[in-house]
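Example record

The entry below shows one chain as it appears in the dataset: sequence first, then structure tokens.
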Amino acid sequence: MILVLRALGVGDLATGVPALRALRAAHPGRELVLAAPRWLAPLVGLVGGIDRLLPIDGLGSLPRAGPAPDLAVNLHGRGPRSHRVLAATRPRRLLAFANPAAGHTDGPQWREDEHEVDRWCRLLAWYDIPADRSDLALRRPAPDRVPTGATVVHPGSKIPAKRWPARRFAALARELTDRGHRVVVTGSAEERELAGQVAYHAGLPPQAVLAGRTDLGDLAALVAHARLVVSGDTGVAHLATGYGTASVVLFGPVPPARWGPPPDRPRHRVLWGGDGGHRHPADGQPRDWPANDGVSTNLMLAAVGVDEVLAAVDDVERAVRVSGAVTA
């Protein structure tokens, strides 16, 4: 058995897909078990090649998965805690970044500024397991319970500093609607109020608010069959990359060089104010929200204006028309 630890979120799982596929290809005859949160199960099924999900909540003790694994792979972090969680299963071999504090001196050195996809591909390459960083495509689910051809506006994030101001999302959604887009607003159950505010000030009907009404499988299907996704640096953006759905992703404070989509794919555009070249335009938004929408938006992200996002939307939709068939 191969036991892989990646007990994180949607974007983390999506960026680990090339490494997971590399492990599957290197060990085709062994059971591949992924230790991850139970709620990720719908997305785990869309990765392919994973035989079993071993539910884990954070970095608590792993439930017994049967005999000690032949191979344990830390795709979770640099350690030492994640190393110790896997070491407790007594694997015959542990693949992980070097961490003397965890008693693991094998493996490459951790690089703080490395892209998340490249990080795990490089780890496996150290152990002579080749991985293709471009192998990010996810299986496309049937859109049984979600609309197709919608434009997904996703204003939320678990990290408040990664939220573009809600009043700008509303202005964007209103303009996209005027251009003929069928806009829906997504988010978690905790973000339903935020999504409702965006929809209300955009002039959208209540049924356009899907926040809290879709599970992860529904969200994946929605993105897979969407016309466009506009979001911050969060899991929905990674789903758009995995499905080749046109997307505009608003970055800050973490630069796109760490978590952004592949730069050679014209269907995906990233915007951030980290180069100092953006200014906050007078955008004519409704003024009945606080200036910062009640959250501490990162200043680099707040520098991105609505007009810039609309221009990026034009760019990716032009790329879709040129490329024709969907490609990730």
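Notes for this example: Confidence is low (pLDDT under 50) at residues 276-296. The longest helix spans residues 306-323.
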